[in-house]
Amino acid sequence: MIAPLSAFHRFRQLNQQGGLLLPNAWDAASARLFEAAGHPAIATTSGGIAYARGLGDAQRLTREAMLGEIAAIVRSVDAPVSADIEAGYGLSPQDAALTARGVIEAGAVGVNLEDNGHGALPQPLFAIEAQCARLAAARQAADAMGAPLWINARIDAYLLDLGRNAERRFAETLARGNAYLAAGADMVFVPGLADPAEAKRLAAGLNGPLNLMALPGLDGAKPWFDAGVSRVSLGAGPMLAVMGLVRRIAEEARAGEWPAMSAHHYGFAEAEALFERR
Question: With 90 as the cut, is the pLDDT of residue 278 above it?
């Protein structure tokens, strides 16, 4: 089920206009809750999906399994959905193209594609030329289907703390970002970057919009938006927060109590209404 062109264009507009706080869902329930709260678009979290299915992050699910989860989330909401496809479930441009086609067929309107080899490469990240070829292949696959897929090129230099020093890491990220944009990406995603001043430098140097990821301990998205960041994603944060809450409930239940469960109660009638047939 390919999304209507209006959904692709709406998601593109949301990213281009800036100030987009994008929540990441791991199942139909979380997606519906985000939509009910008024979020105009939703993304998936590969880590959250993996954890909910008893696996670790970093491509432990197969391409087919992840596409099935993405399709289920797309079916659960009316809002446009962007898919976290990790590193594309393969190293080659052909793998990236195959995954992009699958995402479009699942009904998603955007993707995140990482430059992280997840242990399958001699070095942590793909060579710039190799990742450019993979992004170009994903773009060509989308174009062949007539789908203006929003491609978000993720760079893991900050997340993995790569580079001999902070300036080298920044320069590497900027060079990769502009190369990826030239290869066909629409946006650059740099998880792990936390400093608004550095975000402002990066946003100013990129030839396209910048996406950052919410991190524990930060005050919120406003300083990043003020610095020129276009989009802030919640990432696996909501799923991890739910895990933290469940752990607390589990510990309290061992003592025969359930104050946290009561404090965060979501009514049965509310849940039934959330999943009424559309």
Answer: no
